[in-house]
Amino acid sequence: MSLFYTTQPLPNIPDDLTIPQFMLREISGRPRRPSNVPYFVEDLTGRRIGYEEAHHRTFSLANALSLKWNIARGDVVCIFSPNHVDYAPLIWAVHVLGGTVTPANPSYTAEELKYQLLTSNAKLMVTHPACFKVASSVANVGQLSGKKSIILLDSLGVSNADGIATVDELVTFGARRPENYKAIRFKRGEARTAVAFLSFSSGTTGSPKAVAISHYSVIANVIQMATHYNINDPKDIHKRFIPGDTVLAVLPFFHIYGLVVTIHFLLYVSLTLVVVPKFNLSDFLRSIERYRVTHLYVVPPQIVLLCKHPEVKKYDFRHVKLCISGAAPLGGELMRQLTQILPNATVGQGYGLTETCATVSMTPPESKFGAIGSAGRLMPGTIAKVLKPDGTMAKEGERGELVVSGPSMALCYLNNPEASAETFVDGWVRTGDEVVIQGTDLFVVDRLKEIMKVRGFQVAPAELEAHLLLHPDITDACVVPIPDEYSGELPLAYVVLSESALALIGSNQSKHRLLKQEIAKHVSDAKVHYKKLAGGVEFIDSIPKNPSGKILRRILREKAKGLPRERGLVPKL
């Protein structure tokens, strides 16, 4: 049997702790944070939040949630917001009570948010003023009971005629009342199955599914990353993380990358998070300089801008000492260019999934520059095998589907046994990614699954195809990815028009163009921005299928390679 793993020993992972217990109390072995090193800095204002305030806000919020909404074990709270300094305290407050958090993409349309609220069975929603209009439009679905089921992160720009509570008001309210709850204490082994997060992923195919992630999974992945980087080894000469180092927390917290790596791992190793609500290149560059940022965790589209935008030349980033790219593969040429922008930084990549509760592999700490194309070394405690198409196990250097096991794996897809059975198999997670393992390096070669990655976000072709078929002029559709330097991939739709539509547009190219624009708008009006048909719309006589009716997507992917390449999105700064 060809099993792949690192020989680096993994310390004991506690299975009787909640995430806030793990994050907010001194645990033997974890790096000690000096009292003058804050947990969070608000990017716009420079406001600093240290351990005492983070602890106070967490437990005051927990008391308020218990008093006002009776949040308790098993209840689900949705956080529908861009990054915010109260995002983590909100998560931990819900966990203190035994509740589950489902983080939602703040760019979601009302229909997309509604789907997540219903699928997760959310009882309460915390939202940002920028998201309030969408949140309030679906505040009556499922267990929610109108606007009284909404909490605002702050009141800026929102009329409070409905008496909607803000987080600051709840912190004050909870702090002034006697404790109304008993913090959850797990028995030995209980953290392995207690659900902390319902994070949404499209898995290997189909519509988004709620991935059930336990407290133990998050804690395990944090300890795996800390072990990988020799955090507690006094003899380690590389010291990639030193208490007081600063990371620009620009990755969205609702995404598994930002949720586990940024919020939990980087806080665990005593870094300070400069919390950025939304990426904007000019602000991003100024913040790196202003806060003397030492660590950058980014995605390839941001690296494209760092390497190619002229504004970057105004800055000196020699103080940055580590830059890790994830969520989608990064090309070797971009990695080389990035070393010119960040001359003193270790540059590398990581790989992971929502279903593996984040990190599967990452650039080794002793590497100054990750091997070109490599997603790094497997995490300590993670075991991998590579399955060839015939079901046999590949040897080192052979291609196949990556299948992984380890302490951080998610539990299942909530209330979806069929999809769970396809991905979670006897303790192993089928990633749907074709890889090669060479030595200690994991190379992601191709995506076997249908899901495409747009700016690091998952896009399920089936979801877009189902929506396209709602258009009265379309009788069949297939969505495929086309490569794009900035976004990684972009959705391109091949559509079969109805006879009446064909008769109407005939050979008139102007009418063809207008109908394509209408079809693209049909999608953009209903879906989040990264699901738009930025790759274009193409008319086709028929969608190729096999005898059983399954779309032969590979044929259209190949066909798309011959299309003009000036279709990609222009990066927005």
TrEMBL record:
It holds the Pfam family AMP-binding_C. Signal peptide: none annotated. GO terms for molecular function: CoA-ligase activity. Keywords: Ligase, Membrane, Transmembrane, Transmembrane helix. Residues 463-550 form the AMP-binding enzyme C-terminal domain. Residues 37-414 form the AMP-dependent synthetase/ligase domain. The chain crosses the membrane at residues 254-276. This is Amp dependent CoA ligase. It comes from Coprinopsis marcescibilis.
